[in-house]
Amino acid sequence: MRLSRFFLPVLKEVPADVQIVSHQLMLRAGMIRQEAAGIYAWLPLGLRVLKKVEQIVREEMDRAGAIEILMPTLQLADLWRESGRYEAYGDEMLRITDRHKRDLLYGPTAEEVVTDIFRASVKSYKDLPLNLYNIQWKFRDERRPRFGVMRGREFLMKDAYSFDLNEADARRSYNRMFVAYLNTFARMGLKAVPMKADTGPIGGDLSHEFIVLAETGESQVFCHKDLVEMGAPGPDVDWDGDLQPLVDQRTALYAATEEMHDAAAFEAVPEADRLSARGIEVGHIFYFGEKYSKPMKANVAGPDGSNAPVHMGSYGVGVSRLLGAIIEASHDENGIIWPDAVAPYDVSVINLRTGDAACDAACEQAYAAINAAGKAALYDDRDERPGGKFATADLIGIPRQIVVGPKSLAEGNVELKIRATGERSTLPLADALKSVGA
Ligand code: 5CA
User: What is the pLDDT of residues 317-341, one digit of tens each?
Assistant: First the structure.
């Protein structure tokens, strides 16, 4: 993409009430624009990152055996009356009436809809286990939308729902999601620790939150220091094997928030091994058994001729929130530092003297070569001062910059800068291209 033809409305000033750095940087870098409290338009740069994050989530769900569907944003209130949650959900639910005076709502989550889909067609244990997920916009009329996409009212969520014959099988489905989450967040360059959690309005008695450690996180987290450094198991886990020891190991190392969901377990960690950090909840998984299947009569026939409510769990990832979390975890005073896997472009090509025949030719060559290699280049071909171009490149955080200026070029060189480390090297264009994979 040529910057002269792109839509990148960077901001010099951000509103004074913008409190956290990820929100400031997303506005300054022209990634999002607030349309109403907690409701954002996604501008081209933001949308590219959102799609990359979404795709990593999708790939890890698929790898763990979940199957993608797409449910509507609008849901019938009657389904929520069946489950008993319509009144209980309270003011966070956006309630809508259509022209026929039917009560609808903008879905804050989709347990009811997915249970309705399931019960219409699955009747036997032979069709289990089943895990259906979707990546869809949700609406929660949060009392205090804040911190940009971190706590929005409209936000993109991945929500998966598992269906099993009994509790033991449901545990296996839960564990798969637990492991898939470890892999998902690690691929985005994040350190996310699982933490035993309360289940809140979703219900059930087994739940973990996944917390990204970042200094500006909303909650104070305490955890065993080994948990943070442990990393993810990677794609080669035996998905059909027993994942319980892995889940137990991570859970035993234990993390807690200020609210201290489980003070006794926390006390059991020797003081020297605790770490204290701040964190952002990027995922939340729940096992709640028959909570929805029973009132909604989602029954399956067992091998012994029984007919009983299916056992369910649900598994959420805050896809749009993750952009804020990644920036909180990866930025400096000049702007965003995107991890490779989610970067909107792979390489910035910066022309320090547009209109100079040699500079233009070298940049065109670099731009074409990078794109031809299947990487994405953002070419700053604008007629602007070098200082402004450097500032924009650092602000939007593309991992590698190839800087082409008349002086170095006269000696046959360009400059390659690595955004994360600030490391610069002067080298021939061909070598710079090779080192960015083109
Ligand atoms: N039905 C379950 C799992 S699918 C559920 O809704 N869980 S949740 O309430 O914990 O939400 C899942 C994830 O969505 C959270 O972990 C968080 O990362 C994200 N999320 C929740 N509320 C918001 C919000 N207001 N803004 C941005 N992301 C949010």
Answer: 999 999 999 999 999 999 999 999 9
Contacts 24+ apart (CB under 8 A), 30-35: 30/396, 31/323, 32/148, 32/149, 33/9, 34/148
Token code pair at residue 97: 């009436």
Atom 6 (ligand 1) nearest CA = 109
- Which amino acid residue places its CA nearest to atom 19 of ligand 1? 318
> Of all atoms in ligand 1, which is nearest to the CA of residue 159?
4
Least confident stretch, 104-113, 191-200, 202-211, 218-227: 218-227
Residue whose CB lies within 8 A of the most ligand 1 atoms, among 135, 157, 161, 210, for a mutation test: 157
| Per-residue model confidence as pLDDT tens digits over 21-80 | 999 999 999 999 999 999 999 999 999 999 999 999 999 999 999 999 999 999 999 999
Owner of token pair 């971190």: 150
* Single-letter residue type at 210: F
Q: What is the pTM of this model?
A: 0.95
pLDDT, tens digit, for every residue of 337-369? 999 999 999 999 999 999 999 999 999 999 999
Is the link from the previous residue into 129 a cis peptide, with omega within 30 of 0? yes
3-state secondary structure of 375: coil
Residues with CB under 6 A from ligand 1: 109, 140, 142, 151-152, 155, 157, 159, 202, 281-284, 286, 314-316, 318, 320-321
Task: Enter the DSSP assignment of 434.
Answer: H
